[in-house]
Inverse folding.
């Protein structure tokens, strides 16, 4: 059995047939996972310095040189690295006095922070399978982003106290701006206008207070909230839709969950995308007390000025590990990044490796190298590589760069 | 998916009984149930005036011809490989309490639906509730599919 590191569900029941060391038929792997597994045969990164192919030793020496000479280096990425690599990366960052940020800073950051700081209740996905009777997908579409979410945990499986599964024991509610594939198969769908999540939360709270909500379809909302209230064990799965929409009014989520918990039991599990984003947030929280946007320049500091968006303006070199910020961040930030000496550590070629001064190819974790990671609910999952590879792991590369300093 | 009325519109509508059935509507229903073939309607095949209808009928019947004995059609290009059908299938659940019943991949040899190479695949069709003459019109697999990648004839 292999573990799929294609998303943060870290499915552990994957069967892969090996045919002469190469991957053959796979079972239980979703389409997204299959793409992830097959990617090790496509478009791999090659060691390069200044755009020309180079030896791996030369690339590592050059990378160490760039980071050593930088006054304020930025280290970004981390969500696709194992827990051990993340810990080694933080040691390197302390030594360099670097600014460290990960993808959560522009993604699920604030909800993950609330969960990790225990400001809102959470539970594990195994609890969801065994006990949950209401699953609310708010601004998330797991059928597209985490294809096996509903079948493994949140809706279809039978659990200890949910023996009749989705037919009688569970209700799935989708709240989204569009009728997504998840909404199509949910029991209830509530359409929210883009940016209208805060208004909806306020309306839900007023229904819970016994007041008439100020929305167009009052009857529908009252029936939705009544169903939520009736639940014995409810779980909210907030996706990026909710994260971005509630960004300025974060306290509303706490208020709603608190209100629901007065009559029922509700937990929140953020729909983390990358397979070990939560692992990095947890590791950084344990070591520094912050989940992202940390600067090791003068002791330990955290703040919005150390987010990748701001740090790209002030830093003079960058180490990007397992991420592609040049294609995913806004053009102005990408341009800034492309203008500075970048060291890219990645299993695959991408826009960031294309603009990087030094490219160090790494083994794909979970496929060519083992390790451990935190699933979206914070449970640690250990895994081994599926195929043999001569490529260095993230951990080995970081150790060599540290030596080079 | 084509229905019996649409097939009927493409038959000669003469009720000639050459196929062995009393009406063209009965032939359309039999064709949809895969109890008859298009070739059983001899006027449609032999007479040149029905050439256009024959061509259209062959076109609409093509996806149905690929269906399994239970009438299940899988569109692999649409499938997400989410496994909802595997876990929702009541036969899979009954045969595999420690596998598909609790959301894992099937561990039983009798599994009807499995996800192989990222898309759903049918095995052990004879286990399906829709198999054979005394079928139950179960639709757990198609109702739970988010991408409409599986359907019944």
């Amino acid at each position: 059995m292999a573990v799929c590191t294609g998303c943060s569900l870290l499915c552990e029941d994957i069967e892969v047939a090996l045919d002469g060391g190469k991957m053959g038929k796979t079972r239980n792997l979703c389409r997204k996972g299959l793409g992830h597994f097959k990617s090790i045969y496509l478009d791999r990164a090659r060691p390069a310095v200044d755009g020309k192919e180079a030896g791996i030793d030369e690339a590592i020496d050059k990378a160490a040189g760039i980071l050593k000479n930088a006054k304020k280096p930025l280290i970004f990425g981390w969500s696709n690295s194992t827990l051990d690599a993340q810990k080694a990366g933080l040691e390197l960052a302390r030594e360099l006095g670097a600014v460290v940020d990960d993808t959560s800073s522009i993604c699920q950051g604030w909800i993950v922070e609330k969960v990790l700081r225990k400001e809102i209740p959470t539970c594990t996905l195994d609890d969801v399978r065994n006990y949950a009777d209401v699953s609310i997908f708010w601004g998330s579409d797991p059928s597209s982003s985490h294809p096996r979410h509903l079948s493994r945990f949140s809706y279809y499986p039978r659990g200890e106290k949910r023996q009749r599964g989705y037919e009688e024991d569970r209700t799935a509610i989708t709240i989204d701006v569009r009728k997504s594939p998840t909404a199509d198969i949910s029991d209830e769908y509530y359409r929210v206008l883009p940016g209208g999540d805060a208004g909806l939360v306020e309306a839900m709270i007023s229904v819970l207070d016994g007041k008439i909500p100020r929305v167009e379809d009052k009857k529908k909302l009252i029936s939705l909230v009544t169903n939520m209230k009736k639940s014995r064990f409810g779980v909210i799965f907030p996706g990026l839709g909710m994260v971005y929409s509630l960004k300025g009014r974060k306290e509303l989520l706490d208020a709603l969950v608190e209100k629901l918990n007065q009559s029922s039991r509700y937990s929140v599990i953020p729909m983390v995308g990358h397979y070990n984003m939560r692992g990095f947030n947890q590791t950084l929280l344990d070591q520094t007390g912050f989940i992202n946007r940390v600067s090791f320049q003068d002791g330990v500091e955290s703040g919005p000025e150390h987010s990748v968006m701001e740090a790209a303006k002030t830093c003079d070199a960058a180490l990007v590990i397992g991420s592609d910020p040049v294609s995913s961040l806004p053009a102005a930030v990408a341009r800034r990044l492309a203008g500075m000496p970048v060291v890219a550590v990645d299993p695959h070629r991408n826009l960031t490796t294309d603009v990087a001064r030094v490219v160090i190819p790494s083994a794909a974790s979970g496929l060519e190298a083992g390790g451990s990671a935190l699933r979206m609910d914070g449970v640690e999952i250990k895994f081994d590589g599926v195929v043999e590879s001569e490529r260095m792991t993230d951990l080995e590369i970081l150790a060599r760069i540290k030596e080079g300093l | 998916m084509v229905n019996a009325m649409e097939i009927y519109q493409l038959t000669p509508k003469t009720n000639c009984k050459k196929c062995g059935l009393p009406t063209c509507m009965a032939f359309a229903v039999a064709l949809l149930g895969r109890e008859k073939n298009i070739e059983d309607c001899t006027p449609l095949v032999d007479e040149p005036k029905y050439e256009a209808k024959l061509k259209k009928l062959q076109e609409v019947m093509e996806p149905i011809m690929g269906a399994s004995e239970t009438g299940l059609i899988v569109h692999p290009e649409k499938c997400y490989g989410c496994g909802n059908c595997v876990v929702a299938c009541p036969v899979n659940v009954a045969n595999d309490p420690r596998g598909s019943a609790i959301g894992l991949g099937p561990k039983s040899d009798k599994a009807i639906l499995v996800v192989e190479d990222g898309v759903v695949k049918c095995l052990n069709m004879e286990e399906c509730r829709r198999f054979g003459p005394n079928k139950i019109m179960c639709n757990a697999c198609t109702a739970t599919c988010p991408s409409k990648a599986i359907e019944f004839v």
Notes: The two ends of chain A are 39 Å apart (CA to CA). The domain at 45-107+275-404 of chain A is CATH 3.40.50.740 (Rossmann fold).
